Each structure stands twice: as C-alpha cells, then as structure tokens.
Amino acid sequence: MKLSTRSRYGVRLMLDLACHCGEGPVQLGAVARRQGIGVKYLEQIAVRLRKANYLRSVRGPKGGHLLARPPEQISVADVVTVLEGGLKLTDCIKPDGECDRWEQCVTRIIWAEATQAFLEKLQATSLRDLMDRVPSPPGLDECEDEEGNQ
Question: Domain 5-132: which topology?
Fold first, then answer.
C-alpha cells in the first residue's frame, strides 16, 4: 500500500501545527515554507481537516489555523482516515467490495489482517507521540531553566 501525498502532507501539517500550538494561530504560508509543501495544496488539505473538526480557523490579520483538540487526542489514523476516505489496503476486504470472489477468497483474509494491524499502529500514534520524536534544534540541549540559568 502506498499512502497518498495528501495523507502524508496532512500528517506533516498537523504535526507542524502541534509543534507550534503555544504560539497562537499559524498561517499556512509559514507551514508551507517549513514543510516544503505548496500552500494551495495545504489549503485543500486544511479544508477537509477543518470539516472533520480536527482544525480550527481564525480569521483576520493575526489569523491562521489551530488544532481543534490537544495533540494527544488526535491520532495519525484520524488524519489519514479523513484524507484517504477510510483505511483499507484493498477494496476486496469488505463484503461490498469490488471482488466477485469475496466469499471463497482466502487471500482477502491476510489483506484484512494487514489492514487491521496498520490501522491499530496509526490509531496508537498520536500527534503528541510524533512531537516527542521531533529532533531538538541545535543548542536546545543547553536550554535555560525557568529562572534563566543554564
């Protein structure tokens, strides 16, 4: 299976917003520059995620986009499901699939099991989990504490 660019970019968009969630609304142009993704494409992705209530938009000169929920409450599966229209490796794993051999096909069982394992992994991974994997920028290992001491 190959995830669409829309899903991969959508997860990158959501992760970028999660990483900047304490800064107020984030403009898609800033995300586009950081992620190397076209702003028009991000706008299309953002519309879908906003309709699914994973993003909020703020209008005005200081407007932009925000996560509609905390990062730990949004899974990678949530984002991919919205952007892919569901998660399945093949169309034949459901009775209403396109295959006329559904009832006697043994191979569909492995596709169903693989789909389930894939979905479980994406459901178990939140944006917070991904944030924890983002490498720290150089120099952050020598951060100051709350009182300004190193």
Answer: Arc Repressor Mutant, subunit A (1.10.10)
